[in-house]
Write a structure and sequence with these properties.
By secondary structure, this protein is an all-alpha fold. The chain is built from 20 helices and no strands. It is globular. The structure holds aspartic acid. The site of aspartic acid has 16 residues, from helix 17 and helix 18.
């Protein structure tokens, strides 16, 4: 099915381009199909983010020996995802790939253009805590939902035993929404054909097609450079921790990273990552807790993708973004990255949240659709690499120096042969 899908997407790209250039009027009249596809993405985004965040946060509370391991993990995740987003935003500000591209590429499919409004701190806080959470959800205001999910999860943890059914419910819901996204992705070729075709038709009618292709290629180049830099600083960290064993770390990490490239899913790669952690002699209990947890929330490649794409769209639309507005993109990208749940193209769905917060029309996603499948493979590799470095860092921090010496003794592996591997179920959820 995967291969079939790949060819269908290629076919829809070719048909969209040919249709957009040769029959622009016809393509424009089929724009509603693409709008339908975007509506379906939006339909799932909110419940997915809510259930994924509640599931991830409450899972910390369910782990008895959380202590310092949990704190180190959260600290690492926040640092690494922040670095990723900052690297991406800086590169976009330097290279400015979106400047000069025709806004029609985005506006062609937009029902209405939202203009950025200046937000001061107090009104920002007021939008985070609205009086009616259902009304906020109905208006698709994502940040209040995120804050509500965080407070809700903390309350579940502190209630304890009697809140267990609620936590289980949200974990189950998360799996259901992931399944719905997988189904929705089967419609990608149709949505892509319509959205790409009508955007190209619009650009072709204005004779600005080549300019647009150049801008997209520059954007992809800048994003790949950002991913590379993100891997690089984490490699420097590995080098610091492992000294002479850094090359061995990369060698062992290459297997899960290749699996990530092939599956486009960090969750599906989890069993292979656990095997790599075992080969790397990372402490069993650290790996068993940190890897699944960080696989769910440490999606630095995804967060960077959401931030750079949003800024890229803002550049195309000629929206001037103050530092405060870029800070908004920074925060929402971090949260949206966490909500992407480690499944193929999950990041594309949660990006809607970042777009909304920056007042960019969601139709902008059309520009990414032709490239998202391949970009997803690269950002998933970076996500998986990040989770392994996270596990190694937490292990480094939580292992006393003297034990560390003992651990690299060859007899260590033999003594720890009984390390169990977390398996993934057929739908990608962790058992
Ligand atoms: N496919 C990514 C992952 O599994 C998520 C995304 O960026 O879409 O890590």
């Amino acid at each position: 099915m995967n291969n079939k899908m790949f060819y269908l997407i290629l076919l829809s790209i070719v048909l969209g381009i040919v249709g957009g250039i040769c029959f622009p009027e016809h393509m424009l009249s089929m724009r509603w199909i693409g709008t339908l596809f975007i509506n379906l993405l939006k339909l799932i985004a909110l419940p997915l983010i809510f259930s994924a965040l509640v599931g991830a946060i409450t899972s910390i509370g369910n782990t008895k020996r959380l202590g310092s391991i949990g704190i180190y993990t959260i600290f690492y995740v926040l640092t690494s995802v922040s670095f990723a987003v900052i690297i991406g935003l800086v590169l976009l500000n330097v290279f400015k790939p979106g400047i000069g591209l025709p806004p029609q590429l985005i506006l062609a499919n937009a029902a209405a253009m939202h203009h950025a409004k200046a937000i001061d701190f107090s009104s920002f806080l007021l939008t985070l805590f609205p009086p009616n959470i259902v009304a906020a959800a109905a208006k698709f205001e994502i940040m209040p939902i995120v804050f509500f999910s965080i407070v809700f999860s903390i309350a579940c943890i502190s209630v304890g035993e009697s809140a267990k059914p609620v936590m289980n419910l949200f974990n189950g819901l998360r799996d259901v929404f992931v399944k719905m996204i997988i189904w929705l992705m089967y419609l990608t070729p149709i949505g892509l054909f319509s959205l790409l075709g009508s955007a190209i038709a619009e650009a072709a009618l204005q004779k600005r097609l080549m300019e647009s292709v150049r801008g997209m290629l520059l954007f992809i180049f800048v994003f790949m450079m950002g991913l590379f830099l993100q891997c690089l600083w984490q490699f420097a960290l590995v080098k610091f921790m492992k000294r002479k064993n850094a090359a061995e770390f990369v060698r062992q990490a290459s297997n899960p990273m290749l699996t990530a490239f092939v599956t486009s899913s960090s969750i599906a790669t989890l069993p292979i990552a656990l095997i790599a952690a075992k080969q790397l002699k990372l402490t069993d209990e650290v790996a068993r807790f940190v890897l699944p947890f960080s696989t769910t929330i440490n999606l630095a490649g995804t967060a960077m993708y959401e931030a750079v794409s949003t800024l890229f769209f803002c550049q195309i639309l000629g929206m001037h973004l103050s530092i405060m507005s870029q800070l908004g993109i920074f925060i929402t990208s971090i949260v949206a990255g966490m909500g992407a749940t480690g499944i193929p193209e999950g990041g594309l769905v949660t990006m809607i949240m970042v777009l909304r917060s920056a007042n960019v029309p969601t139709s902008a996603l059309v520009l990414l659709l032709p490239f998202d499948r391949i970009l997803d493979r690269f950002r998933t590799m970076v996500n998986v690499w990040g989770s392994l470095v996270c596990t190694a860092t937490v292990d480094y921090l939580s292992t006393a120096k003297k034990d560390r010496g003992a651990k690299y003794n060859p007899s260590y592996l033999a003594e720890n042969e009984d390390i169990g591997i977390v398996a993934t179920s057929s739908n990608g959820s962790i058992r």
